[in-house]
Amino acid sequence: MRAEVEEHIRTMVRYHDDKEFILVPYCDDGHWTLFIIAVKVRRVYILDQLFKEGNKNPRHYRLTSVI
Prior knowledge:
Elements: H1 3-15, E1 21-28, E2 31-38, E3 43-47, H2 63-66
Antiparallel strand pairs: 1-2, 2-3
Organism: Helianthus annuus (Common sunflower)
GO molecular function: cysteine-type peptidase activity
Protein name: Ulp1 protease family catalytic domain, papain-like cysteine peptidase superfamily
């Protein structure tokens, strides 16, 4: 994930801190993942249609460390 994208997400989370959830669709190399940011509890839920146990690409999940 590019540094500009990470910074934009950090800014949006701070700006929308009154919201319950923020939905962040993200495409990396043609692979779409939906991150659901639970702002108040500082948790990220990941919806990934291709995820299979043992087949997780850490590059697709860097957003979780941004929050």
